[in-house]
Automatic annotation (TrEMBL):
UniProt subunit comment: Monomer.
NCBIfam families registered for this protein in UniProt: infC (TIGR00168)
Role this protein plays: IF-3 binds to the 30S ribosomal subunit and shifts the equilibrium between 70S ribosomes and their 50S and 30S subunits in favor of the free subunits, thus enhancing the availability of 30S subunits on which protein synthesis initiation begins.
The family this protein is said to belong to: Belongs to the IF-3 family.
Subcellular location: Cytoplasm
One GO term describing the cellular component: cytosol
Key word Mitochondrion present: no
Gene3D superfamilies (alphabetical): Translation initiation factor 3 (IF-3), C-terminal domain (3.30.110.10), Translation initiation factor 3 (IF-3), N-terminal domain (3.10.20.80)
Source species: Cetobacterium ceti
Name this polypeptide is given: Translation initiation factor IF-3
Annotated ranges, domain Translation initiation factor 3 C-terminal: 88-168
Translation initiation factor 3 N-terminal domain: residues covered: 10-79
Length: 170
């Protein structure tokens, strides 16, 4: 709401020698000086609001500015309500994980995917495990095969980090 009020000039803040004026009903009144347009707006107990400052001449509309600000804030709030935030959950695996621990973590991944969250599966390698990275990659491939039915799989294997990103299928 504050962004709207910072950019828009109203009443006495409107600059320029000539402006194009539009009435509150939407019909064009014509080109006139800002003072004359402001007098016309005050007669109707409304505000003169600069709609298009970059046009030649600038376009101004006679309207109730408080009501306009309220409508803009309500539209912004409604648009924000309809947005869906993407949450990324991370589950870390090691190459030498036990089968029961792996099943527990896979259960977590399924739960996260069930709640429409993205899941990042990271392979953590300590010390000499880095020399045998192919074992970890094979484990990540097994996990990827397991979730191909319910999630889109994006594989990323760089030198230091190896991870999968699972996005739930629509």
């Amino acid at each position: 709401m504050s962004i709207i009020s910072d950019k828009i000039r109203i009443n006495e803040k409107i600059r320029g020698k000539e402006i194009r004026v539009i009435s509150e009903t939407g019909e064009q009144i014509g080109i006139m000086t800002p003072g004359a347009a402001l007098d016309m707006a005050r007669e109707r107990e409304l505000d003169l609001v600069e709609i298009s400052p970059n046009a030649k001449p600038a376009v101004c509309k006679i309207m109730d500015y408080g009501k306009y600000k309220y409508e803009q804030a309500r539209k912004a709030k409604e648009a924000k309500k309809n947005q869906k935030q993407v949450i990324v959950k991370e589950v870390k695996f090691t190459a030498r994980i036990d089968s029961h621990d792996m099943e527990t973590k896979i259960g977590q991944v399924e739960k996260f995917l069930g709640k429409d969250n993205k899941v990042k599966i990271t392979l953590v390698q300590y010390g000499r495990e880095r020399m045998y990275a192919d074992q970890g990659i094979s484990m990540l491939n097994q996990i990827a095969e397991r979730f191909t039915a319910i999630a889109d799989v994006d594989k990323k294997y760089s030198d230091k980090q190896k991870h999968l990103i699972l996005s739930p299928k629509k």
